[in-house]
Amino acid sequence: METLNFNDIFKSSILEKTTSFSVVDSIIGLLSAFILGLLIYMVYKKTFSGVIYSHTFNISLIVMSLATALVIMGISSNVLLSLGMVGALSIVRFRTPIKDPMDIVYLFWAIIVGILCGAGFIPLAVLGSIFIGLILILFVNKIKVENPYLLVVRYDEKSIESSLEHIVAGHVTKHTVKSRSVVHSNNFEITYEVRIKDDNTSFLNSISDINGVQSAVMLSYDGNFTA
Question: Counting Cβ atoms within 10 Å, is residue 64 exposed (0-12), middle (13-18) or buried (19+)?
């Protein structure tokens, strides 16, 4: 029966991997991921144009860059570990719905920064992040896109539709009927997609003054319903 001596105890794979671990390279990689994560944080805050700004989501972009860099540093020198990590991450599911497509862009950007910094391609991560940040700032803040609105009107007489059509056509640049529905036997609802002139919504008062109109509500619309 073999006995373990003092040297055998310390001949472990963990200690062998520790000797090949570079503290300086790891600090440089994590610091780079943190700085670029701050860049993503500032660009997201500057270009956000949604309804409710989420500070926690923005902070998570920095943490995601750091966490991804840590994972890449850990699996970059071990093929078996990398395969196991892929299998482990394949069971992860995101439960939080992403309403704005731009949020997915920022998530993907943070992950790519973490991968590049963890793999040692820091110059590529810096150049790519600066380029992406400039594009986002230029297109989101400088180029104005005219988003449509949804106009929802409830009324109790079918004949009112002709008056509605006349008022809407005279005050918007473009309009289309998205839906018509009967709420109750004598209650109707019609939804227009409209593009207004110079953000002028005064025609809502004209619609509300029509005899038989119960309510007139206009919502901003950019692919999702937002009040």
Answer: buried
Specify whether the CB–CB gap between 41 and 58 falls below 8 A.
yes
Amino acid identity of residue 105, one-letter, is V
pTM: 0.60
Tell me the pLDDT tens digit for each residue of 76-125. 766 556 656 665 555 556 555 666 778 888 999 999 999 999 888 999 99
What is the spatial distance between Cα 153 and Cα 157, in angstroms, rounded to a whole number?
Answer: 12
Ordered DSSP codes for the chain: -----HHHHH--HHHHHHHT--HHHHHHHHHHHHHHHHHHHHHHHHH--SSS--HHHHHHHHHHHHHHHHHHHHHTT-HHHHHHHHHHHTT----S---SHHHHHHHHHHHHHHHHHHHT-HHHHHHHHHHHHHHHHIIIIIS-----EEEEEEES-TTHHHHHHHHHHHHEEEEEEEEEEEEETTEEEEEEEEEESTT--THHHHHHTSTTEEEEEEEEESSSEE-
